[in-house]
Amino acid sequence: MRDVAVVGFAQRQMREFDGSPNCIELLVPILQELWEQTGWTKEDIGFWCSGSSDYLAGRSFSFVTAIDALGAVPPISESHVEMDGAWALYEAWLKIQTGEADTALVYGFGKSSASTLRRTLALQLDPYTLTPLWPDTVSIAGLQARLGLEQGLWDEKAMAEVAARSRSNATTNEYAVRRGETSIDDVLAQEMFADPLRRWDCAPITDGAAAMVIAATDRLPDADKVARPAVISGIAHSIDSPSLGLRDLVRSPSAAAAAEAVGGTDGVQVAELHAPFSHQELILRTELGLGGSEDGVAINPSGGALAANPMFSAGLIRIGEAARRIWSGEADKTLGHATSGAALQQNLVCVMEAKA
Fold it and tell me: Minimal CA–CA distance to 93: which of 316, 255, 263?
């Protein structure tokens, strides 16, 4: 296996919808930021891969339009996944493993404000038995949260602690849409939004994009640009049934399987978990074997998805935020997680370590 490291990461998460940029306008400054971080240019990238969905965005060939931000001439080696940008990262990592490329740039983008997101995402469900009922994502998450409450797996205070910590952690995150010092009582004082979920238990609607540069460790940027690469020591993804009636909604076997495939989570100091609802962080911590601050693991120091959740890039942002903790020297081993589908149906885990 080739050692591959995350060497560049940039993001934009928009607080306002009015005048929100299109995908090209979002990506151009992000790419420029990556060139400044790495000292590279377009010619140094061997493979490009994007994550988005024309089907959910309602825009034909929007992923092709995004290539205008990259520059279509001269021709590039490019691919696309109908998933979060985290899965584009997985494809690019495989491309480097096979030797077809030494470097790659991956990105994800989406305009959640273009429609009623909670209804649009029902299109991800089983088209025969579930989509015709149009169960929205918040209501499905509410059912999941209620099951956990009734089984005594968590209580409202535990959910509120996640929401309060996420908002408080996001105070220093310049891209966070929802942030500010918040207490558990502040969260519990809110009215129900979709019983048993309060509004702060649910991720905000967010437009945004993110991009990342990865490279084989024998092809890294100059040390003065990237002094402490975040080497991917394990990356894997798994999937559960799309039928809500065929799986236990208070568990996420696919998350546990992905964690097992990367060799477990022992030694992880920082974990960025893509949990669009507060109770889903509790599920993920159990399935991934992460205790939390009491066990020395910092969970979502950026604020996580409850601070901002741009469609098709929120998972890639979790991996980028985890990599940043290694670059800064705050941690030697971190974990980034991405999810897709209803009720934690699909999960990807990426573990990174500081290069020796």
Answer: 316
Is the pLDDT at 294 greater than 70? The verdict is no
Residues 6+ apart with CB under 8 A from 310: 13, 14, 109, 110, 112, 206, 207, 208, 209, 210, 317
Nearest to 340, CA basis, from 314, 303, 308: 314
In angstroms and rounded to an integer, the radius of gyration of the C-alpha atoms of the chain is 19
Residues 236 and 343 in one domain: yes
Indicate the pTM of the whole model. 0.96
Write the CB contacts of 185 (distance below 8 Å, at least 6 apart in sequence). none
| Residue matched to tokens 């991956």 | 106
Alpha helix segments (H runs only) across the chain: 23-38, 54-57, 62-65, 67-70, 85-97, 117-120, 137-150, 156-169, 184-188, 253-261, 278-288, 314-327
* Contact call for residues 201 and 184 (beta carbons, < 8 A): no
Same domain assignment for residues 87 and 121:
no
Q: Which amino acid is at 61?
A: F
> Mean pLDDT throughout 205-210?
92
Q: What is the pLDDT of residue 42?
A: 93
DSSP run (H or E) holding 109: strand 103-111
- Do 211 and 234 fall into the same domain? no
In degrees, rounded to 5, the angle at the alpha carbon of residue 27 between the alpha carbons of residues 22 and 32 is 145
Please give the residue range of the domain that contains residue 259: 230-354
* Cis, peptide link before residue 74, omega less than 30° from 0: yes
Let me know whether 183 and 280 are in one domain.
no
Residue 225 lies in a domain: no
* pLDDT band with cut points at 50, 70 and 90 for residue 20: low
Which two tokens mark 155? 């209580």
Q: Assess whether pLDDT exceeds 70 at residue 73.
A: yes
Tell me if 278 sits within 8 A of 309, measured CB to CB. Answer: no
